[in-house]
Amino acid sequence: MADRQIKSSQESRGRDIVVIGASAGGVEALRSLVHDLPPKLAAAIFVVVHFPANYSSILPEILTRSGPLPARHARDGERIEPGRIYVAPPDHHLLLHRGCMRLSHGPHENAHRPAVDPLFRTAARAYGPRVIGVVLTGNLDDGTAGLGDIKERGGAAIVQLPSDAVCASMPQSAIDNVEVDRVVPLKQIAKSIVELTHARVDGGTVWRRKHHSSSNHADYLQEEADMAETDADQMQLDDRPGEPSGFTCPECGGALWELKDKKLLRFRCRTGHAYSVQTLMTEQTTGVESALWAAMATLKEKSSLVRRMADQAQQRGQSVVVPRLTRQADAADRDVEILRRVLLGFKNQMEPEAARGRGDRAKAPDAPPIELPEETKGAECEPAPRSSSASQRKRAWQEDDARRASRKSASGNGGNGSGDSGRIRKSEAKGKEM
After folding, report:
1. Handedness of CA 177, 182, 185, 187 (dihedral sign)
2. C-alpha angle 50/55/58, rounded to 5°?
3. Running DSSP on this structure, what letter comes out for residue 129?
4. Is-contact 340 296, C-beta < 8 A?
5. CA 164, 167, 65, 72: dihedral to nearest 10 degrees?
6. CB-CB contact of 207 with 128 (8 Å)
7. E runs forming strands in 11-147
8. What is the pLDDT of residue 136?
């Protein structure tokens, strides 16, 4: 078996390292791709598909049944053999070294682990022009920076035709930012891989000498790879690559450094979390929405608490404070309604983004105007608890409305009664004087 292992020699040879990245719609795309590969492919294939951390993956079994090449989850330190498909396991980055692969529980990149960029970047660092990078269907832009690194080191780049992809964002981002070699429909990608594996290329050292590849880029690849592997020395360095951005990391709250790499603008924090511009914007939007939901829940709790205080004050005969507490509760309810409308606007803004990810070009619907309601209705404002059924929530809202109506009725009757009694007493006093 040793004679079949991928060697790291520097002589002229074919491209024998294929790295593939996909996200939404990626499983079906990979099934189609591996089905068309030949049984004696003279290259090793490495696959990253975004996958939830707390789920098991049967993707290797699916790919093994779909094509002639055996597939399995990559193992830390395993030697690389041609004619096999290695799949990144959930919650681990798949990284390539010369002759072997490593698994890392390093920081998320583009909000994912495994992420496509670490695989592409380390493949470019270890194998240079012998790498073929493939970007398939997916949302946002993971894989674009890594594909640029592959091209910078002399490798080849294949991208699925965006109109042929389930989600066009990842392929389109790669095309917009990287000088790709081929943009083809899914059915032609396997053929393109085979053709590129037959093309002879120089080994890494020879290629860099011929093409005067920048030593700065090699240093950058090493630093980025060290971060993905949670290298302690690299994480503790005060001299960070790039410049301070003024932004904070959505995941850990640390300062983000701005990394400018040709067309791309990226960010990385001290602990290693990395973001493209699109991913950072998406994470910030998610953070804003979470903050709004938290504010809405807090305001609703404030309304309930203040109304309970008003009920207790009414029962103790402290009627002078009841109107003030009621006004505070009503103001909180109005603020809840405003936040509800803002959150509805968030939903309308996100829908066209999802449509663009599917390759559509739907026009964004206008968000509803944010206006103060004439009369706030608690039943419309209260966020429904996830654990309650619809009937329970409806009954709770009805009880809340009934309590409010009862308070208003009691307040109105009490005020009229005391006023009438005062007038009667004054009339009786005047009668006695006469």
Report:
1. negative
2. 75
3. G
4. yes
5. 130
6. yes
7. 13-14, 17-22, 44-49, 71-73, 85-87, 93-97, 100-104, 131-135
8. 98
Q: Which two tokens stand for residue 343?
A: 């959150």
Distance CA 55, CA 213 (A): 41
Residue owning tokens 């009627």: 319
Contact 53, 89 (CB under 8 A): no
Rounded distance between C-alpha atoms, residue 26 and residue 167, angstroms:
9
Could you give the angle at the alpha carbon of 297 between the alpha carbons of 291 and 299, nearest 5°? 100
Q: What is the DSSP string of 136-202?
A: -S-STTTTHHHHHHHHHTT-EEEEE-GGGSSS-HHHHHHHHHS--SEEE-GGGHHHHHHHHHHSEE-
Distance between CA atoms of residues 276 and 111, nearest Å:
10
- Calculate Rg over the CA atoms of the chain: 31
- Alpha carbons 231 and 61: distance in angstroms, whole number: 33
Could you tell me the mean pLDDT of each successive run of 10 residues in the chain, 434 residues long? Answer: 49 85 96 96 96 91 97 96 97 94 93 95 94 97 94 96 96 96 97 93 55 58 69 56 84 86 80 89 88 92 94 92 94 93 74 48 40 42 43 58 62 47 44 44
Backbone angles phi, psi at 29, to 5 degrees: -65, -40
pTM metric for this prediction: 0.71
**How far apart are the C-alpha atoms of 29 and 190, rounded to whole Å?**
11
Active-site annotation holds for 92:
no
Active-site residue, from 16, 117, 141, 142: 142
- The answer for 159, left when phi > 0, alpha when psi is -120 to 50, beta otherwise, is beta
CATH number of 11-234: 3.40.50.180
Whose CA is closest to 168, among 196, 204, 145, 140? 140
pLDDT of residue 219: 66
- Both tokens of 328, joined, read 């505070």
Distance of alpha carbon 62 from alpha carbon 31, whole angstroms: 7
pLDDT score of 2: 38
Q: How far apart are CA 21 and CA 49, in angstroms?
A: 6
Nearest-angstrom CA–CA distance, 283 and 215: 33
Residue 65 phi, psi dihedral angles, 5° rounding: -70, -25
Please return the burial class of 119, using the count of CB atoms within 10 Å of its CB with bins 0-12, 13-18 and 19+.
buried
> In which residue are the tokens 């109304």 written?
307
pLDDT, position 233: 55
CA distances from 299 to 112, 380, 428 (A): 33, 14, 50
Is residue 142 part of the annotated active site? The answer reads yes
